[in-house]
User: Fold these one by one.
Assistant:
Number 1:
Amino acid sequence: MKLIQKNRIRVALLAASFFMLSCKHELPGSIISGGDSSSGGGSTTVPTQTSNCSADTVYFVNEIQPIVNSSCAMSGCHDAVTRAEGVELTSYAKIIRYVSPFNTSGSKLYTVSIKTNNDRMPPAPMAALTSLQLSKISKWINQGAYNNQCSGGCDTTNFTYSGAVLILNDTYCKGCHNPASLGGGIDLSSYASLKVQAANGKYLGSIKHSTGFFAMPKGGSKLSDCQIRQVEKWIQAGMQNN
Ligand code: HEC
């Protein structure tokens, strides 16, 4: 009896380790948690805390979710349909499974992103997260990885390319719109290529969710009125590389 039990455990362990070896980028959390109800709700749902933007704080809704949405949760990767290697990163409840609050080095979300070998996420040929994006993620984790959001952090009198459009574009759009991941054939990874889409009206049409355009950012919430206005003012002022 005892021997049979032992053998069963051994077989189970072997099967488990084989599974782990066969999944190059598997994140242990998804094995432990077993199935994944696609509802996205359940006991792990944490209400969003909203406050006024503070320059010292990194906010999940404003900064982290958009990065994950455009660099990890796009179609073919960790969206609700593909769920590459069982990992879905489409909501706070799902993302937090790969985060250990206050512990960057214990957080898969961060550690897989800084790898320098073939296991890095997003995988080549997609670009690695930028150092600014990585520092935002690590700061957010070290501040407790809360489901937080702030308002009032946007200023419509700031509508330069480098101070407004580029930052917004890199956070919400570039992960899906670069030569390695060319959503809809649209490249937004450089000033020149972004300007083409701004000049033909598609950039503004898509972020305003105007009729006749695909609504952007795909899979994410609509940009704030202030952010849309910043883009609009930059376009009206001649789309300078300022
Ligand atoms: C998760 C991936 C993803 C994100 C994030 C994303 N896009 Fe897209 N985008 C796509 C895909 C895919 C298409 C092709 C149309 C479709 O399938 O919806 C597209 C299409 C477009 C188009 C063409 C629209 C049209 O009507 O022809 C524009 C312009 C665009 N995106 C701009 C943006 C901007 C600006 C952002 C950021 C605010 C953004 N996208 C964020 C994936 C994404």
Number 2:
Amino acid sequence: MLLDRSSRVSAGLLAAALASTLWSASVHAADTTPAAQLQHWSAQAGAPGNAARGQAFFNTKHGGEWSCASCHGTPPTTQGQHANTGKLIAPLAPAFNPKAFTDTAKVGKWFKRNCNDVLSRACSANEKADVLAYLNSLK
Ligand code: HEC
């Protein structure tokens, strides 16, 4: 009887653990797409992203030590490598990385951090739209 009761308790705990795992997974689940990101930043910019401009932006240093390509590679269709830490980075171009640009919070976090590292400021909506147009064009 005692055993029975404790096994029911642990089943309950297991269910709770499972539910919280599923919940946190859903928080990080895909909530956007590369196409939606391009549309979003183009709308913010008031003009469609331009792939050629995005490519130039991506490969250029903007007064600092790094370009986007320093860590993401060029073209960013294969694994990149962090210019400082050597940490491997999944390909940034969505056609080569199904997870790229599928999580709004992640995109926001890294745009903020990486633009600051490269330009010492945030990227404008125009620049983000251009980068997305470039990345989405890589097949
Ligand atoms: C110093 C190294 C470094 C530089 C320079 C850099 N990045 Fe990144 N970037 C990273 C790392 C590390 C990640 C996280 C990769 C991961 O965890 O999947 C990342 C992720 C991103 C993501 C998130 C992609 C996704 O998974 O949805 C975007 C967007 C991004 N970078 C854009 C840029 C842009 C634009 C530039 C140039 C302005 C740039 N990065 C320059 C290191 C860098």
